[in-house]
Request: fold
Amino acid sequence: VNSESAEPAEALSRLSLNQATIPGWTVREAAEGSARAGLGWIGLWRDRVAETGLRASAAAVRDAGLGVSSLCRGGWFGAPDRAGLEARMEDNRRAVEEAAALGASCLVLVCGPAPDRDLERGRRVVSEGIAELVPYAAERGVRLAVEPLHPMYCGDRSVVVTLGQALAMAAQAGPGVGVAIDTYHVWWDPEVWAGVAAAAGRIIGFHVNDWLVPTPDMLNGRGLMGDGVIELRRLRRAVDAAGYQGPIEVEIFNRELWSLLPEQALALIAERYLAHVAEPAATSHLPR
Amino acid sequence: VNSESAEPAEALSRLSLNQATIPGWTVREAAEGSARAGLGWIGLWRDRVAETGLRASAAAVRDAGLGVSSLCRGGWFGAPDRAGLEARMEDNRRAVEEAAALGASCLVLVCGPAPDRDLERGRRVVSEGIAELVPYAAERGVRLAVEPLHPMYCGDRSVVVTLGQALAMAAQAGPGVGVAIDTYHVWWDPEVWAGVAAAAGRIIGFHVNDWLVPTPDMLNGRGLMGDGVIELRRLRRAVDAAGYQGPIEVEIFNRELWSLLPEQALALIAERYLAHVAEPAATSHLPR
Reply:
């Protein structure tokens, strides 16, 4: 055993590939590719799971020896009327069942958008939707993750835009609900360090990627770790210090990354994870 | 006198055209066009003032009978080194002198960006820059406006991204420093209503425009009032309730609006201001 640095397999054991990062792979391909590269986890999307089939997806992940760090996504509580909301809730119950079948660490919720201009009403609708979903999820052993999204998504996706808000909402909802912290969504917040510390015991997901300057696209312009301005390692250390020991998911929507060959993209992701997120391997014992 | 609704001239007396909204007009054309349309104010940009000349600009605005709601802009404290920062501070002193010569209600500061990934250091640099500028501005009777920008500009423009932060910074800097509240930058914030109330006595600028869904461009995709999702009238009422009685500036960077003829653009702005921002004219006494 090389004592100077962690073995690759160990070094990447917390790393999770969110499959939206490499859409060229099916669930099975992503699971096998991730396992080959030494990753310990995978993050799945419902549409891709449906394409492969729920049972086949669960088997593929199990065969590869991976854990499922998250299932994306439930939520979308902002319907124009009660019938619309009921349809969303029905879909959310399906999402819970899928998360249970996959053994996912959590089901990520998109907490919005508001049905009209009234954000406060929109937030109440989200809280009520979560409250309604909690017992159904608890019975199936599924944890729900409130993920604050960047304020630039407040108009069309999420009325929960700060970690503080997400925490308050999760705390109100009870023990089956936690927060997912994505560096892209929270890095700008002057309260982020206090927020991460306050989230101790409630963090059930941690996602890394980077904020590019300039940002090429509001939806599909996220950066690979190290290409942007986020203090990624500092945030990862803060999340660890808050007691989180779970998977670290790489979720990047980026057209350039999507244009690479899947293996090439994953190798780059692993390299950047080691360079910018993971604790640097001890160098004091390296041969000179 | 028509008692049912305000005269146009009175109805638009608080309205200010930020000249970046209609870049086809020179300072003199913008001043004359605004006065013709019944506006009481104008917001100026330093590059356009330089193009017309400082004295000629001041004369044009005076001749038109307008007040200058703001001069855009100073700040930009995020320099890579001390020499760079000193050049910025020198430029900021010129901006203060120009604001004084124009009789501007305030000089708007862009409070950033951070010189590197460390946002906390970036915020300290901004606070120190403002503190250094305060006496120079006070001697010339110029108020400095800390304007929080939307968090999507945190990487390249402003480390001040919430009204709460801006207020704390202004309060620390003393009586010559206030905040400028732009609906586009603050509407998403769950703390915005508390923040506006807390800003009582420190609001020295109020800007309106709208958040489009989807947003066509991160820089030049702001919406005309009424085309987006911001509760504009509610925000204007909150700002009024906090004691602000000054100009209401329309600052819209939008390629579609820029493609209109200037008079056409200004007529549309006035119409939307009355429809979505100003207090509706009393209708109870309207003839049936």
